[in-house]
Design a protein that fits this description.
The protein is of the alpha/beta class. The chain has 13 helices and seven strands. Helix 1 runs parallel beside helix 8, helix 1 runs antiparallel to helix 13 and helix 2 packs parallel to helix 8.
């Protein structure tokens, strides 16, 4: 075996290892969010926080005029003929191409179950009949981490689509990480429908859009190719939203379909680099989001426990106020009742039902109360009694108002929060750190 061949095999093994590490990281992150009763989503739901799980793959949408090479690019990238290609309009709807365990084709309804996010798109009339998913076992390049979205070929004129294609593509653009715009140099590079849709997408996804001159080998000589590119650039510059500095439009074509006489530089590997950058950015974003979500959940658990402790202290204070004012209220009622009873009960009457010593002890005990009420002028007794009743009512009202308690966590729920907090700090955050270390190890020197 030659040295060049050995290096090629070694490079292939390194790429395969890199893909597997990235794929494992995405799967582990997703598992931390959705798997088990103590998943981050379950913890968030119990705490009243909306936690979004990360996607396992990035979404890449391809748009352009019909026969611009969108389907051909997908077939080339995954090294498998999945999408039909040709000069005619082969793709009339949206086809999602993804890597899976076995080869399968999913129709509209199955596609919406496979990708629940697409259920929002069903508001577009008749779109369901034009949704499909192609599942393939291909593991080429970074395809296990990608879902390609092949869109209908766009044409000008009186061409009628069975659904609102502009609205559907715009909606898809909001769910994508990258949007590839393919311009075909053979008469369709200036398709107005394509430019109109790109202009709309640029309003909210300008940083996701990449322009490519596809089938560049068919554009003729280098001079012809430059003319086509200048025409495209001029047309884009006419639109304020697309007129920006740093514009780039690499020339690409499928190597296996290339015109042998063409000397056009093929920058199709730059497309792969854009995909690799997006995957790397997505992985870093997911790991950073995982760390932030862990911190947010820990803070929320701490806040919940602190609120529960504060509620406990409040409830103790509330019970103390209740006990105080209830004692005062019922104590005043008892004094009034005692005064009323013994005002009509003489010692002789009490002696008739008890012995003399008991009767004497009772009257000596309540004597201070009798003397206090005796000081009240006869004309003001009813007023004083009414005032005492009012104050007594006020005590009962204060007892009710100040004794309002706040909800407490049950001991079971409190222990669950403490256990989950411990799991996040001692298990999930170290896992996140370990996944980041594995990811960064791919960039380190041997």
């Amino acid at each position: 075996m030659t040295r060049r061949g050995a290096r090629r095999i070694a490079g292939g093994n390194t790429e395969s290892l890199t893909q597997s590490i990235n794929e494992v990281i995405l799967q582990e992150c997703h598992g931390l969010y959705v798997e088990g009763e103590d998943s981050l989503i379950s913890i968030g739901d119990d705490l009243g926080l909306a936690v979004e799980p990360p996607r396992k793959k990035i979404n890449i949408m391809l748009i352009g005029n019909h026969s611009a090479g969108k389907s051909s690019f997908i077939n080339w990238y995954i090294e498998e003929t999945i999408q039909r290609t040709g000069v005619a309009i082969e793709t009339q709807g949206f086809t999602l191409v993804t890597s899976g365990k076995r080869r399968d084709t999913l129709t509209g309804t199955a596609t919406t179950h496979f990708y629940p996010m697409l259920k929002e798109l069903l508001s577009t009339e008749r779109i369901l009949d034009y949704l499909a998913t192609e599942v393939t076992t291909s593991k080429q390049k970074k395809f296990p981490l990608i879902t390609f979205i092949d869109t209908p070929g766009l044409v000008d004129g009186e061409m009628l689509y069975p659904f609102d294609v502009d609205q559907a593509i715009e909606w898809m653009g909001k769910k994508c990480d990258l949007i590839f715009v393919f311009f075909d140099p053979i008469g369709q590079a200036l398709c107005k429908r394509t430019l109109n849709i790109v202009e709309k997408l640029n309003e909210f996804a300008g940083d996701k859009i990449r322009f490519y001159l596809s089938k560049a080998d068919t554009a003729g000589s280098e001079t012809d190719r430059q003319k086509v590119m200048m025409q495209v650039v001029q047309e884009l510059c006419k639109r304020p939203g697309l007129n920006k500095t740093g514009f780039d439009m690499p020339t690409i074509y499928i190597p296996s379909l290339a015109n042998e006489k063409s000397r056009c530089v093929n920058q199709i590997e730059d497309v792969c680099k854009d995909i690799d950058k997006s995957i790397a950015h997505t992985l870093q974003s997911i790991l950073n989001t995982l760390d932030k979500d862990c911190d947010t959940l820990v803070e929320k658990i701490d806040e919940t426990l602190q609120v529960d402790n504060a509620n406990g202290k409040h409830n103790v204070k509330a019970y103390s106020w209740w006990l105080l004012f209830q004692t005062l209220g019922y104590g005043m009622l008892l004094i009034l009742l005692t005064q009323f009873i013994f005002s009509i009960l003489s010692p002789r009457m009490l002696s008739a039902v008890t012995d003399v010593q008991t009767s004497q002890l009772v009257f000596e005990t309540i004597e201070p109360v009798r003397q206090m009420f005796a000081l009240i002028p006869e004309d003001n007794k009813y007023f004083v009694f009414a005032a005492i009743l009012f104050v007594n009512l006020l005590f009962f009202i204060l007892a009710k108002v100040l004794s309002r308690t706040k909800p407490r966590l049950t001991s079971k729920v409190k222990k669950l929060h403490i256990a989950r907090r411990k799991k996040i700090i001692e298990t999930i955050k170290p896992k996140q750190s370990d996944m980041y270390t594995k990811y960064l190890a791919q960039c380190a020197e041997n």
